[in-house]
Design goal:
It contains 19 helices and two strands. Helix 2 packs across helix 6 and helix 2 crosses helix 12.
Length: 410
């Protein structure tokens, strides 16, 4: 990545926010908030079951839940913990049909999360069949086990003499302060890398996970400050004040998670070009179609990053605008993994068809592209000859058009 100028960084952040809005990030966060509200008890119950299945983890479930609420749910965690304990105690007495319903509810939440992340990565087809079930079950079963294992290992390490000596020097608070951020970053990274139904670069997922964890920590502190310093909401909601605060926090959490996913995708596809080649959309799209045609001959599809890197006149925001007419006219299409391929036989697709499919008028002039390939230079010359012929044909006084009926009558 080249050294970034402030303007390039500003454009990157601007495009990131635009993509978040275009992908309906706020709406998705709202939908996931309500889904989480229905699925939180099933998730906790499944977590207890996973931890109880291992003898060494007996009794760790409540410790994990208390640690999560203390570190990840600001201010209202104690009240919510009490509610969850009551709900999960009732859930443990369910019949087999009730347990099946809890598992289905948890899996439905995972499907909604995958749908939101697939929308960000522009993947059309979600996982189906056994692959989706295995992924969801892995997340639901391994997640609690990993957190429980982390707490067990942490307890073991803190009992070591070396750690005790270090904590006396540094202070135990500082040594433990980074654990929630570390766990959050790892969890977000795995979420961004594993859940979308496409290949996500691990580096992009890691950076997105770290950024989301830092935003999460900042939001947690800010939210806790608001709840403790401005308790006027308690006058309105009374004993139920923790419920709307818990909902608000879940919503903020999902906004942060989806922003981290947007950042992961942006890092994977964004081209940090200092300058873009100034050329008409028609010229750029001719080059894109040539790239897709060459890829088709090799039996492969092109990703967003493949196209943006290959085209000097494209960045992410331009590509977002340029691809729409090609998709709407079914000139190209996205496959299930979000990659692009031709949808038309170019032997039967003419230059006139392309011009009519684009919302932009024919260019009045064309730039001099010294580094362009021969086929593109020849295409530009052909377009210039068309433009010259059209201009010559229109060099006609309007009166001659208006008097045409008089000439015909004479």
């Amino acid at each position: 990545m080249p050294e970034l100028e402030p303007k390039v960084l500003f454009l990157f952040i601007r495009d990131l926010v635009r993509q978040f809005i275009a992908n309906q990030g706020i709406l998705n966060a709202s939908a996931l908030t309500y889904t989480t509200l229905f699925a939180v008890v099933p998730l906790v119950t499944v977590s207890y079951a996973m931890l109880a299945a291992i003898p060494n983890f007996q009794g760790v479930g409540e410790t994990v839940q208390a640690w999560v609420l203390e570190n990840f749910v600001p201010a209202t965690g104690e009240v919510v913990h009490t509610y969850l304990q009551d709900f999960t105690a009732q859930a443990r007495r369910l019949t087999a049909i009730g347990v099946l319903f809890l598992i289905i509810t948890s899996i439905m939440m995972m499907k909604n999360i995958e749908a939101a992340l697939n929308r960000i990565w522009r993947v059309q087809e979600p996982r189906r069949g056994i692959s989706s079930f295995l992924l969801y079950w892995a997340v639901l079963s391994l997640g609690p086990l990993l957190v429980g294992l982390g707490l067990v290992v942490t307890s073991y390490i803190t009992a070591l003499p070396a750690f005790t000596s270090a904590s006396e020097v540094v202070g135990p608070g500082r040594l433990f302060a980074s654990l929630p951020i570390l766990f959050s970053a790892i969890a977000f990274m795995l979420l961004y890398a594993a859940v979308p139904n496409c290949r996500v670069p691990l580096a992009a997922a890691a950076i997105g996970g770290i950024a989301a964890a830092l935003m999460f920590e900042l939001a947690k502190r800010s939210f806790a400050f608001f709840v403790t310093q401005f308790p006027s909401y308690e006058l309105i909601y009374g004993a139920f004040a923790a419920v709307p605060m818990f909902l608000a926090w879940i919503f903020i959490s999902w906004v942060i998670i989806l922003l981290g996913a947007e950042l992961s995708r942006a890092l994977a596809v964004y081209s940090f070009k200092q300058r873009l080649r100034d050329e008409p959309p028609l010229v750029t799209l001719l080059s894109v179609l040539n790239q897709l045609w060459q890829a088709q001959r090799q039996g492969r599809a092109c990703s967003d990053l493949d196209i943006i890197k290959a085209q000097p006149g494209l960045n992410q925001s331009r590509w977002d605008a340029y691809q729409q007419p090609l998709l709407q006219a079914k000139i190209m299409q996205r496959n299930a993994q979000g990659r692009y391929l031709l949808a038309r036989d170019l032997n039967d697709f003419t230059l006139l068809d392309l011009v009519r499919a684009l919302p932009w008028p024919m260019p009045q002039s064309y730039p001099t592209l010294a580094d362009a390939p021969p086929w593109l230079l020849a295409s530009i010359q052909h377009l210039e000859s068309i433009q010259s012929y059209a201009e010559d044909a229109m060099q006609q006084p309007l009166v001659s058009l208006f008097k045409r009926e008089e000439f015909q009558a004479a």
